[in-house]
Amino acid sequence: MTSWAAVKQLIRSDIDRYQYMLELDGVLPRRGPQLVRDLRTLLLCKGAQAGIVFRLGHALIAWTPTTVAGRWGRRVGRIGHWMAGRVIETRTGIQIADRATIGPGLYIGHFGGVIIGVVTMGANCNLSHGVTLGRSGRVGDLARPTLGDRVWVGPGAVLVGGITIGDDAAVGANTVVTKDLPARSTSVGSPPRTFPDRGSFEMIVYRGSEEDPGRHASLLRIAPAGGDRGLPEQRRRFEPEPTEVGPVVSGRPA
Ligand SMILES: CC(C)(COP(=O)(O)OP(=O)(O)OC[C@H]1O[C@@H](n2cnc3c(N)ncnc32)[C@H](O)[C@@H]1OP(=O)(O)O)[C@@H](O)C(=O)NCCC(=O)NCCS
């Protein structure tokens, strides 16, 4: 069962991603009462509204009540959630399956055409408008995509079947993906052309991304000179300082 505290934390992490982007864009002041900031974020960001409804629906199906009152509460909650879900789908154009497993910090940038099936997705992923994540369409084929952490999916991209998209991968606009994509790669076009050592590093930001040890570790795995456009520079910032070793005396540092 997902605890209420865990659900609240997931919702907080989602809202914070939108809030951070609004702050960077200068739309939302960095200070002020948190409730007002949250309400403004919810009004401005359709992805945040759809995300909250998904988080609540996911928690409701994971909840296994042990009392009669609890079972009734769950039933009523599911009906209420179903109705709220239909309203949100119409308002936001975003449909997320309750049974999808999605890590913290989901970010859906714009209105419309977003269909997320029962997929598995890591933390801090970005989805653009018109993205479809789901089954291959072959009758009986139930396999769905698994996305790693910090995956960026561009507008109109379609990712289908039992494929795995590695951490920090980026998928270009209108790309159709039916095969695995490696971590830290950028894939564009259909069939996809894949550029290694590029990835989503320049596209995905979130509060604390500069200090995120998972992101640093991934950045250090791109080839030191192989990545292009500033990534080697970003990578160097996280390389450990060379340790000073004194003069060597009889095979050991002095
Ligand atoms: C994923 C993406 C960011 C990659 O950009 P990038 O790494 O800078 O790639 P480049 O622009 O250097 O392009 C590399 C090659 O891929 C091609 N390419 C880039 N994006 C492409 C796409 N979506 N489909 C097909 N080919 C594409 C370029 O023409 C170029 O081809 P070339 O090597 O023959 O010259 C970009 O492809 C993309 O899809 N951007 C969408 C941005 C967007 O949606 N913005 C609006 C948000 S609301």
TrEMBL record:
Keyword Transit peptide applies: no
Record has Acyltransferase as a keyword: yes
A GO molecular function held by the record: acyltransferase activity
UniProt-listed Gene3D superfamilies: Hexapeptide repeat proteins
Any coiled-coil regions, as ranges: none
Record key words, sorted: Acyltransferase, Repeat, Transferase
InterPro entries: Hexapep, Hexapep_transf_CS, LbH_SAT, Trimer_LpxA-like_sf
Pfam families the UniProt entry points to: Hexapep
PANTHER family: SERINE ACETYLTRANSFERASE (PTHR42811)
Protein name: Serine acetyltransferase
